[in-house]
Amino acid sequence: MKVKNMQENDENSSLSLIPYYPNYETALAWYQDLKLCKQVDNIDYVYSLERLKAMYHYLDTHGECYYIQYEDILIGNVTLQDSSELSIVICKEYQNRHIGRACIQKMIERAKEKGMHTVKANIYSFNTQSRKMFQSLGFQKAAEEQYEYHIV
After folding, report:
1. Cα–Cα distance measured from residue 80 to residue 60, given in angstroms and rounded to the nearest whole number
2. CB neighbour list of residue 109: distance below 8 Å, 6 or more residues apart
3. Alpha carbons 9 and 22: distance in angstroms, whole number
4. Which of 10, 21, 60, 94 places its Cα 20 to 30 Å from the Cα of 53?
C-alpha cells in the first residue's frame, strides 16, 4: 500500500505499508529500545522473541498489520484491528518526521473502506508524543487513555 510522500520539502522520500510477514530479526531490533517499550506497552523491559511473535500473531489474526517501509527500510508497524483500534510503532531513529501521521491517515482511509465509523487509539497518559500526533489528526479524548476519531 503506497502512502504519499512524507515531507513536503523532500520529494524523493517514499513511504509504503507492507502487509505483515514474519520478519522477527528486523522487528525485534525496534523492541529492544526500553523507551519505545514504555511508550507502547508501559513496560520497563524490552521484548523477547517469544513476546514479539505472540504480539504479531495477535495483531495479524485480529486485523490488518503492516510494516512501515521508509526509503526501502522497515522502520515500524501499524495495525488496524477488527475492533477498530489503531496502533503504531516507529523505531526511535525515524520518529518525529510525520511518518506516523501519514500512516495513521492511511489506516483511517482503510477503516472507512471497511465500513468502520469510528477508530480508536489507546495512548498512555505519559506518551505525549503519540497523543499530540493523534490529536493533530482530529482524534478526541474519549476516556482517560482512549482517543477516538469519527469517520465521515
Report:
1. 10
2. none
3. 34
4. 94
